[in-house]
Fold:
Amino acid sequence: MAYNIVYKKSVHRDLKALSKAEARRVLDQIERELSKKPDVCPVLKGQFAGLRKYRIGDYRIIYALAGEDVLILRIGHRRDVYKK
Structure:
């Protein structure tokens, strides 16, 4: 079953903080992997309870599953993505 990838508007700001090559690599990986099996990634705890994370090198993608959609909420470096 293929999932639809949906990006929150604030993700565009997160991608601008990355270099163009890194942003392209992250987006390609999201489209390729998360659209197939988003439910195998770890579930977060604490203030992010119920959300999931996907790791691409030093970058983390925070997302939520909503039916057949994968809602991408944040993209950032692992040291910064859980802040705010």
User: Anything to note?
Assistant: The chain has two helices and four strands.
